[in-house]
């Protein structure tokens, strides 16, 4: 399902730690789009002891090994990823950078416009190009980078 006309719109300057995990809407101009990449959402692992296969959800595509085999008689702790298994699922993923809309009085101050990284998945991938004015709705998350913590909208 998709949410349309979600209000109120949040200004980019107000996207702070108190927005983490919250569903917000913001408006801005797309200034950059990344290449489309596959995002693994579920990865199959084969137990090295008994050969049992289990699917492990990967929140935000972060690689997570199973803790133990699910077969009660085995309980092995060594696994191999199986990317060709039917339990392995991927979706299209793309990152876009959205810049805040600035009024004339803000532009005169010489301030650099704020931006936010937004993650697009599935059918939203390839739905915009730089220069498009968009309204984005999503859940704010924080990603650690070399420069520190960065707010993302997913």
Q: How would you describe this structure to a colleague?
A:
- This protein has a five-stranded mixed barrel with strand order 1-5-6-8-7.
- The model has no long low-confidence stretch (mean pLDDT 86).
- With 154 residues, it is mainly β.
- The protein folds into two domains: 75 residues, Nucleic acid-binding proteins (OB fold (Dihydrolipoamide Acetyltransferase, E2P)), CATH 2.40.50; 51 residues.
- It is built from one helix and eight strands.
- A hairpin with a 5-residue loop joins β2 and β3.
List keywords for this structure.
single chain; 154 residues; OB fold (Dihydrolipoamide Acetyltransferase, E2P); elongated
Q: Percent helix among the residues? A: under 10%
**CATH 2nd-level architecture of the largest domain:** Beta Barrel
Strand order of the largest sheet: 1-5-6-8-7
SSE string, helices as H and strands as E: EEEEEHEEE
Please render the helix and strand layout as text.
Elements: E1 23-33, E2 37-47, E3 53-57, E4 79-82, E5 89-100, H1 104-108, E6 115-121, E7 133-145, E8 148-153
Parallel strand pairs: 6-8
Antiparallel strand pairs: 1-5, 1-7, 2-3, 2-4, 2-5, 5-6, 7-8
Family: Belongs to the MCM family.
GO biological process, one term: double-strand break repair via homologous recombination
GO molecular function: ATP binding; hydrolase activity; single-stranded DNA binding; single-stranded DNA helicase activity
